[in-house]
Amino acid sequence: MIDRQIQQINYENIFDILPFSIFIIDKSLKIEFINLLAKEKFKVNIKNKNDILTNIFPRDSLIIDTIVRVQKEKKAISIEKLDLSNPFFSYSNADVYISYFDYKKTEKYIILISNEIFKNKNETLDLLNNNSLTGLSKMLTHEIKNPLSGIKGSAQLLSSDLSNDKNELTDIIISEVNRIEKIIDKVDYLFSNDLLNPENLNIHEIIDRAIKVTKVMSPKTIKYEKYFDPSLPQIKGDKNILIQAFTNLIKNALDAIDHSTDGIIRFNTYYSLWEPKAKYFGVEKRLTPIRIEITDNGKGVPESLKDIMFNPFVTSKNSGSGLGLTQVIGAMNSHEGKAEYLNSHSQTTFRLSFPELIL
User: Fold this and answer.
1) From the candidate CATH numbers 3.30.450.20, 2.40.110.10, 3.40.640.10, 1.10.3720.10, the one assigned to the domain spanning 2-114
2) What is the pLDDT of residues 85-109, one digit of tens each?
3) Pairing relation of β-strands 222-227 and 263-271?
4) Whole-number Å distance between alpha carbons of 272 and 203
5) What angle, rounded to 10 degrees, do the helices at 324-334 and 239-256 form?
6) pTM value > 0.70
7) E strands, 35-163, where?
8) Which CATH class is domain 178-354?
């Protein structure tokens, strides 16, 4: 009963402030949660535990058919400009996003409905500065911190039994736990625009660290190709936040690479002479000329996610949280930079752009 109450409170705190109609249903289409906007838009008032989605949308409607597809294919599906109107309410030109997730080994489905989801496909939803992510981060912080102390303590005990030349792995574990703890201490900041501890950084050292971390975490044999421009100027930023952003991008690339292929992840850094200019106190500078492109030869981004991949909770992985790329966007916003997906049929490339540090 307590767990169920906590779950309900979490849904209400997070989802009731979002600008979407949100339904959470189980495999039988029973409605387990509906947010305030959905209740208003669809004239719904759940009175008992047997309310099902087909009481709102006809069983032969496209939205129900799409939910069935998501159940079979176990991947997110989006539909644009769908007419959901019926004699009881009017809702034409609705954008619908339906995704699958596991909760305590039980299949659940989340449905987002809005006229705004695909309004501008080149921009992420304006949720990065929204209290929803702050509420979510507070909810997750407690669940993450508890096992970290056990991991760190075990690694410290293990290192005392190993010879000095074999302590590198335990040192990495301890170092990464320390870094995660620092990130968790600032988790409410991850999606904001204020740097708490900025310092002068060499972006190549950040990339090297992220590569080293993911090599330890992944069992796959991956070739990392680095084409670094040694003349790049420094940037000003938060080292831990940036390591996490690059780690998220590399982990996505690793997940996309098939075990049967020779995996390659390539890093290109360069200075863009074509970047627009601006003047700061009489000094002319380019806005975000320092560029890092991360390319992999994996299976690519599903077509249905290309326009919304940076949005919170969007993922093609059954066990994914959908917050990795959102953290990347938040990190780039905090560093006055930008993150982009470069569409290509033959490869997947993400490009991060930073402003240079003017000394």
Assistant:
1) 3.30.450.20
2) 777 777 777 888 888 887 777 888 9
3) parallel
4) 15
5) 150
6) no
7) 77-82, 94-103, 106-114
8) alpha beta
